[in-house]
């Protein structure tokens, strides 16, 4: 009986302890409620990486160091390299076939060339003749066996093509061995016939040779002589509008019979801007551009700013970085990034002044607002980019390292509504 009373007493004490702990926890949460409601009017912001920029969207025209090397509209152009591929000076890049050339002429020229070569070197190459004959005999034997196999298998369609090959091989053997009347002709006769056949071949096919090293491009728009790197500094607003009208009227001659060589990766963009948009675009200043629809940025230099009236001006930008298919583009819509800042991004409403120093209210581990100085790199209407960790500042003619906010610090958004030391959460 006595033991039962002791057990009951222990249970009562244990329950009282649990109730006491529960009351403490409840009081703690109740103590946190005022700051919680206070945060409804004093929201906080987590300082993270950001980027702000001052940019102008405009339309311009690409200018290249290029040369149209052929513009014939007759014949079929066969490109020997890929478009955009770089070629060397003197390299064959295309052939133009003006009309159909009889295959027999090409074959006859091949035979004549072979016979002339053999006659000239006959005394020195007598042993080579036997080697050539043996080689041709082996080829004849191989083709003959192939024909026999095709006939045996009933595949008569391919027999005709092999028969033509066999006749050519027999003809070559006759020439080398001197079995036909052709070797009876003297060298002078053969050379006259060679020249005649060569003229026919040359008249039917034109080989295009690159006069400059550079990248190959097809097509043209008729502006290659006007839009050159050398005359951009003399461009007028009237000429700019003429270019625009020319492209708007779709006067391009973009076909594969026009071949251009882009001499190097140096190129320019010419655009028209209003006077209020050119602030910060001083001559020789380095900026960045970004093609509309693309996040990639390209380095550019302001080559010239041409002012003709009080409202508009022409801006010339020089670039050297390769842009995909820039060799075939003329019009381009792009952003001129005049200024760009990266770092810790905070809202401007979080910035305040305290004792003649600019800063923000950062929350400490207990949720109290503590003033921390900051230094801005750049700002727009809504946000500022500030230094991370620390920044240098001159105090009494001495440079001092000032500690500032870091990434992921929690700061008060509306700094004007709170005081230093106020508890936010």
From TrEMBL:
Residues 267-338 form the RND related beta-barrel domain. Residues 66-252 form the RND related barrel-sandwich hybrid domain. It comes from Natronincola peptidivorans. Signal peptide: none annotated. This is Putative membrane fusion protein. Residues 102-203 form the RND related alpha-helical hairpin domain.
């Amino acid at each position: 009986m006595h033991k039962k009373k002791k057990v009951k007493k222990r249970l009562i004490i244990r329950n009282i302890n649990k109730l006491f702990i529960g009351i403490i926890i409840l009081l703690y949460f109740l103590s946190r409620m005022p700051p919680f409601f206070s945060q409804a009017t004093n929201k906080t912001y987590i300082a993270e990486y950001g980027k702000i920029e001052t940019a102008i969207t405009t339309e311009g025209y690409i200018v290249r160091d290029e040369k149209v090397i052929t513009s014939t509209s007759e014949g079929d152009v066969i490109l020997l390299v890929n478009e955009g591929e770089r070629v060397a000076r003197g390299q064959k890049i295309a052939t133009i076939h003006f009309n159909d050339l009889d295959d027999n002429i090409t074959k006859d020229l091949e035979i004549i060339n072979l016979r002339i070569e053999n006659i000239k070197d006959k005394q020195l190459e007598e042993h080579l003749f036997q080697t050539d004959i043996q080689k041709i005999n082996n080829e004849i034997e191989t083709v003959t066996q192939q024909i026999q196999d095709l006939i045996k298998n009933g595949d008569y369609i391919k027999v005709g093509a092999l028969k033509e090959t066999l006749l050519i091989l027999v003809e070559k053997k006759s020439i080398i061995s001197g079995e036909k009347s052709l070797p009876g002709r003297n060298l002078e006769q053969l050379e006259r016939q060679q020249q005649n056949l060569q003229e026919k071949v040359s008249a039917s096919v034109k080989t295009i040779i690159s006069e400059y090293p550079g990248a190959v491009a097809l097509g043209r728009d008729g502006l290659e002589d006007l839009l050159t790197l050398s005359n951009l500094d003399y461009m007028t607003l009237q000429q700019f509008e003429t270019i625009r009208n020319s492209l708007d009227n779709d006067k391009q001659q973009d076909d594969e019979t026009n071949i251009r060589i882009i001499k190097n990766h140096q190129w320019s963009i010419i655009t028209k801007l209003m006077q209020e948009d050119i602030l910060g675009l001083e001559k020789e200043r380095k900026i960045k551009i970004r093609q509309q629809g693309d996040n990639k940025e390209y380095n550019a230099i302001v080559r010239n700013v041409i002012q003709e009236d009080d409202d508009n001006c022409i801006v010339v930008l020089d670039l050297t970085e390769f842009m995909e298919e820039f060799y075939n583009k003329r019009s381009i819509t792009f952003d001129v990034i005049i200024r760009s800042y990266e770092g810790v991004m905070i809202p401007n409403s979080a910035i305040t002044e305290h004792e003649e120093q600019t800063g923000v209210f950062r929350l400490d581990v207990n949720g109290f607002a503590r003033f921390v100085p900051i230094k801005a790199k750049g700002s727009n209407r809504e946000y500022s980019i500030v230094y991370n960790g620390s920044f240098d500042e001159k105090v009494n003619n001495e440079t001092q390292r000032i500690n500032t906010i870091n990434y992921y610090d929690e700061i008060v958004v509306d700094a004007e509504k709170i005081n230093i030391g106020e508890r936010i959460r």
